Amino acid sequence: MHCALYQANRCRSCQWIEQPISEQLTDKMNELQQLLEGVAVQDWRAPISGPEHAFRNKAKMVVSGSVEKPLLGMLHRDGTPEDLTECPLYPASFQVVFAVLKPFIARAGLTPYNVARKRGELKYLLLTESQLDGGMMLRFVLRSDAKIEQLRAALPWLQQQLPQLKVISANIQPVHMAIMEGEQEIPFTEQQWLEENFNGVPLYIRPQSFFQTNPTVAASLYATAREWVREMPVKHMWDLFCGVGGFGLHCATPDMKLTGIEIAPEAIASARQSAEKLGLTDIHFQALDSTKFATEQEDIPDLVLVNPPRRGIGQALCYFLNNMAPKYIIYSSCNAQTMAQDIASLAEYRVERVQLFDMFPHTAHYEVLALLVRLPSP
């Protein structure tokens, strides 16, 4: 992939961009195998990759510069701003929106936040696109609610220019720290979700809920999990750290009981909406802490699927799973280091198979799916 920003040394986020994808995959597989060196993996599956460019469905843009000439992109470590609107990871449809947002910022009087001076209002622009219909969600991350009515009054012009913006909201993030968003979300549109569809499964993207940024590879990840689960006699399944329910909804069947747990209420609302559209009835999505939920249960499922954040599932949940003894565990990880630590703690299980998913080409990051099977009792 060619990137003018990289060539000009203006952005080095894609540190592996000069390596062919085949070499990137080889290096990632080598690292993963080293991390699991002490584990007897029965079956190493071939890695799965997707497009090399224009694959992202979400942009997180730091807003800097002036209200008349805003820059959308990032800040270097020394505080120097960099405009990334021409980043080749974004599809062409994003560039159209960025081009309109720049004059809109001036029209709405949204002064970019100056980190050094701790002044200004507009901190970030968060843009998400549905691959299903091209509808988009735009979120303005503001320092306070001082400009809300001013922004609301200017929105009709923006909506006329960009009818693809189906969801628009403001998020209030008052803290002077590199935190992407705050707790308060102020909707500007009646519709507050985008519909997506992976492998025939409807999924919904809402503000403040996590959704994978590489739809092509994410669809392969969910489809693979479904394929693995269909091979096993599973009648009762937990989907922990379930997000919008992508894994559980792919794996569920009409005669299966599914419990999905996720701490973010917005994500649970999306998961319930999907389950209703699919007509699945024995599904229970709850907004709870996954570890706390699991360790308080006595009913043992056949399968526990975990998709934790980068910190992994941790010792408490590993200890509980060892003792609760579900027959199968499927572990989806965005951090192979913490996954390897957790697998080492799951001493009552053997690793049946492992597969790498290259969700983040041109970087060292990747996703992993692992199937663990309970060892027979001595």
From TrEMBL:
<dbReference type="Pfam" id="PF05958">
    <property type="entry name" value="tRNA_U5-meth_tr"/>
</dbReference>
<dbReference type="GO" id="GO:0005506">
    <property type="term" value="F:iron ion binding"/>
</dbReference>
<keyword id="KW-0479">Metal-binding</keyword>
<keyword id="KW-0411">Iron-sulfur</keyword>
<feature type="active site" description="Nucleophile">
    <location>
        <position position="334"/>
    </location>
</feature>
<dbReference type="InterPro" id="IPR030391">
    <property type="entry name" value="MeTrfase_TrmA_CS"/>
</dbReference>
<comment type="similarity">
    <text>Belongs to the class I-like SAM-binding methyltransferase superfamily. RNA M5U methyltransferase family. RlmC subfamily.</text>
</comment>
<feature type="binding site">
    <location>
        <position position="212"/>
    </location>
    <ligand>
        <name>S-adenosyl-L-methionine</name>
    </ligand>
</feature>
<feature type="binding site">
    <location>
        <position position="307"/>
    </location>
    <ligand>
        <name>S-adenosyl-L-methionine</name>
    </ligand>
</feature>
<protein>
    <recommendedName>
        <fullName>23S rRNA (uracil(747)-C(5))-methyltransferase RlmC</fullName>
        <ecNumber>2.1.1.189</ecNumber>
    </recommendedName>
</protein>
<comment type="function">
    <text>Catalyzes the formation of 5-methyl-uridine at position 747 (m5U747) in 23S rRNA.</text>
</comment>
<feature type="binding site">
    <location>
        <position position="241"/>
    </location>
    <ligand>
        <name>S-adenosyl-L-methionine</name>
    </ligand>
</feature>
<feature type="binding site">
    <location>
        <position position="11"/>
    </location>
    <ligand>
        <name>[4Fe-4S] cluster</name>
    </ligand>
</feature>
<dbReference type="GO" id="GO:0070475">
    <property type="term" value="P:rRNA base methylation"/>
</dbReference>
<keyword id="KW-0489">Methyltransferase</keyword>
<dbReference type="InterPro" id="IPR030390">
    <property type="entry name" value="MeTrfase_TrmA_AS"/>
</dbReference>
<feature type="binding site">
    <location>
        <position position="262"/>
    </location>
    <ligand>
        <name>S-adenosyl-L-methionine</name>
    </ligand>
</feature>
<dbReference type="InterPro" id="IPR010280">
    <property type="entry name" value="U5_MeTrfase_fam"/>
</dbReference>
<keyword id="KW-0004">4Fe-4S</keyword>
<keyword id="KW-0808">Transferase</keyword>
<feature type="active site">
    <location>
        <position position="334"/>
    </location>
</feature>
<dbReference type="InterPro" id="IPR011825">
    <property type="entry name" value="23SrRNA_MeTrfase_RlmC"/>
</dbReference>
<feature type="binding site">
    <location>
        <position position="87"/>
    </location>
    <ligand>
        <name>[4Fe-4S] cluster</name>
    </ligand>
</feature>
<dbReference type="GO" id="GO:0070041">
    <property type="term" value="F:rRNA (uridine-C5-)-methyltransferase activity"/>
</dbReference>
<keyword id="KW-0408">Iron</keyword>
<dbReference type="GO" id="GO:0051539">
    <property type="term" value="F:4 iron, 4 sulfur cluster binding"/>
</dbReference>
<keyword id="KW-0698">rRNA processing</keyword>
<dbReference type="InterPro" id="IPR029063">
    <property type="entry name" value="SAM-dependent_MTases_sf"/>
</dbReference>
<feature type="binding site">
    <location>
        <position position="3"/>
    </location>
    <ligand>
        <name>[4Fe-4S] cluster</name>
    </ligand>
</feature>
<keyword id="KW-0949">S-adenosyl-L-methionine</keyword>
<feature type="binding site">
    <location>
        <position position="14"/>
    </location>
    <ligand>
        <name>[4Fe-4S] cluster</name>
    </ligand>
</feature>
